[in-house]
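dumping the sequnces here before i forget
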Amino acid sequence: MPEALLENEGTELNVLESPRHSCALGGAYVTCIGITGLTPVLHTGPGCSWANFFGLVAGSGGGVLGDFGAMQTPCSYLLEKNVVFGGEEKLKDLLDSTDKLLNSELMVVIPGCIPKMIGDDMQRVVSDYNQTHEVPAILVETAGFTGNSYKGYELFFDAVIDQYLKPSKVKKGRVNLLGIMPCQHVFWKGDLRAIKETIELIGLKVNTIFGDIQGVECLRSIPEAELNIVINPWLGVEAAKKLEEKFGTPFIVQQGLPVGPRDTEAFLRRIGEKVGIPEEKLRKSLDRTVKESWKFFNYVGVGLYMGLTDSYFAVVSESNIAIGLVRYLTNDCGLLPSVVILTDSPPEEYREGIIKKLTENLSSSEKPDVYFEIDAFKIENILDRYPSMVILGSSMEKYIASEKYNAMHLSVSWPAFDRLLMRRSYFGFLGGVDLLEDLLSKIARPF
Amino acid sequence: MLSHAPIGCSVSQHTSHELFRHIPVTDGRPENFSLHSLSTNLTEKEIVYGGAEKLKKALVEIDNRYHPKAIFLMTSCASGIIGDDVEGAVGEVRPKVGAKIAPIHCEGFRSRVLQTGYDAMWHAILKYIVEEPKKKQEDLVNVTNMFSYTWRDKAEISRLLRKLGLRANFVPEFATVHELEIMSEAAVTAPLCITFGDYIMKGLEQQYGVPYFREIVPMGIHNTDEWLRHIAEFTGKEHVVEEVIAEEHKHIGPKFEALKSDFEDIRKKLKPNGEKLTAIGAVGQGRVIAHAGFLNELGLEVSGACAVDYDSLATDVFDGLIKEIGDFVMLISTFQAADYVNMFHKLDPDLILQAPFKGSKFETQKAMGTIHFLRGDNHPSRTQVGYNGAIAYGNMCLRAFKNMALSKLISDTTEDPYKSWWYDVDPLYFVKENLQAAKLQPPKGLIGKTCNRDCDPSACGKADKKCGPARGKGVGTNA
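..and the predicted 3d for all of it:
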């Protein structure tokens, strides 16, 4: 195992500066608003949705997400008297009025810190509601203090699998995507579209769950898939395991978002092998796309020499996108990775695998140092120690990049307060070219 | 800023790293400006065993990291419920750190009114940041303002006060710690919002004899005149102020008249029967008051307003306003999007000014503008106060009438999240007392005509321009 410099991180710290995530409630909330037709119902104090809208949603490339990505979210608005006397009655009324008022296909109750601390019996309220109403409701076991937003994503899938999904006949050729989390993964809207289109090149039908106009139907049909594809070295793996346990759906884990033709083709071959697509058929269906993507790469090649000439680059991001970017910029673009700072706190058991992906099978003679760090102060201290001409990070690095390191900067991870991201994606055959387009546009000029 | 809270509470403060950084130093941003947002990151462990120890260590750690002049400490629902002795912890740490520590007791569940949080913040500033006056600064004017006023508003107000021979001390937005400290030395405290600074105004008067006025804000020509006259009264500039006002009018008057005449042209086109153009705005009571007078000055009729608060601080001012511009409907609720959409639909004003946070649905086929700009805005068109603000904000309203394609298209193409019956009932239908009184029967619409929004406009004899395509997937229990 290559040497990795693990910093003291997370819960043992006495103070934490601007980590790149929200709480479990926030994570479950944004996961819900990624699903069209689903109504998140917050059982929280007055500020939880506000904070997460202006934080987690606003930092994810902008936009107001659907019906509930803003001030429209139903919330029980717990006040001091509820803290003292309990909030169950308020939740009951809220579910009832939400059902009356809104065109909803599924309601997901997301508790905040207050009800968890005062001990509201929310399970009872939800099951009482379900007995008398047509639109179903489920309960996610969050509280703000339960963990970070990734935890919220996992708890959401726990709730859906336990309380909502039913066994179903498997449909040949159907696959689900897991691991691309709304908002936390700032490119989620564009990436999910791109991944779907790319996998469908080899004849499969892809359920992205998030971002689809029939979101709740996508959620309901999860058990119909013959394969679950987790595109993330760790997030979504627990959900995939649980789906295998309950519905027998096998899964594969793609460690890192594939960027560029080589990693993308390898990714598709793995899927092809798993579902039994003949090699010849696969090659034929990708032939044109592969050629086309190398042609575009060739167009931008001169720009790479002129603009980025063997630059050192640093990455500050989630593991998933970091792996994709490091492999592409090193193996395809000939750049030199100096340091990678991972900000998504992967569970211990996944860290060795992530470090390997970031340091092995790289074409450069120098390998990047890898840190797991979420504190903004410490991240800046790490960046101080490395030569970086390019920083791919969050917008929190934007001004230190230019003012302190004189480095180019592009926001690729949360928060991306300086970008609007709707269809942008660095995934896939042409995703790398899109990345270079954005990066080189920062310095394009007459010469 | 330190949040004594689980990590999600401060998630929207991550913007602090970038806040104001795009503003050129030549436009007045301090070169060494830095604002850090930190959290004690309360987890299950602290929820059970208490978070005071962690808080103490956090304060020391922040002091070591940044040597700040001040640390603003914000409490949370979680810290409030577990009952951490915040004052005790801070008291213990205070002698050990160089920074002033200002604990703000702002547990989310304390109140549904944002103003409670403002009051808590001002209390902390007054108690822990403001210093005893060393001297009186007769030319210093505290200007209370919040994040809905822009860098350009600051420039405009500073310009006007400079003409009077005065200096504006903007608080708490745009202020340095030093500028907060010297609030006690000012000649007067003036508001950009009639309610936001209420606590500090009274506090500064009570503690340090700094007078204040609260009933007027400088939005629109007339209000700016009056606002400046009020300040002049407290600073002995009564004579200069008339000169300044006259000079400004000479310059701005023709522009404002042109603006009014442009609105009149639009009115003639849209309302050939002689009726006025109607407008509706939404945010806090302070801005409702400021906007209503200004819109009236432009020749628009205020048909309604939404506010997140309404209390005794503003009732007298409202009485005066209604006498001046006539009565209007006011909806008071804390950003209840469904209520707003309902009311917008009923009043169907020609111009809606709103904060764009109400989901994807714009409930208008007509002109839409923004209710306010934001603190980081540094373009001249994004001025709202003073004479230049009257022109810039008035022009924004005017531009809203020049192309209504966006609001119309979004209104037409976005599926309605609400069931159709919602548009037939009172916006306050879900208020518990109303529900009980009405026994779940929809009351008759308060205002305007109602329409079953499930209809097919092409087949409906009564269809008019207001009808969009058929809406609503479901039929409510009362439809």
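DSSP finds 16 helices and twelve strands in chain B.
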